[in-house]
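User: Predict the structure for this protein chain, please.
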Amino acid sequence: MALAMHSTLTVSCDSSNEQRGPTLVHSTGVESYRIQPEIIRILQQSCTNEKLSDDEKGVQCTDPPAHILQVFKNAGFTVTAETTSGGRKLWILTKTSEGGTANDDEGADDQEEEEEEEEE
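Assistant: Here is the predicted structure, written as structure tokens:
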């Protein structure tokens, strides 16, 4: 299942924990999933499974929001709104693209190539 051509997700954290996390990626309302499998895959590529946990509102990662936001930006998402509400800092991210996650895979390949070059 590829991401829809227009995908939106919400990332948040307690306002007092903005520098250190944890960070919550909110449920997207996809039937039978709290978070779309493609979103989980994006998170797993940059965060170990030990840092990810199920939450009643989505998936929580122990990493700070800045890292999670960068992960999604690298996957083609753009921060379209940022606000504070009820003691939480929230970011709304949107991805508008054709071809689902094809661009994500290319980005991962580029990162692997860069890592290989650094090792040499």
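The first strand starts at residue 6 and ends at 14.
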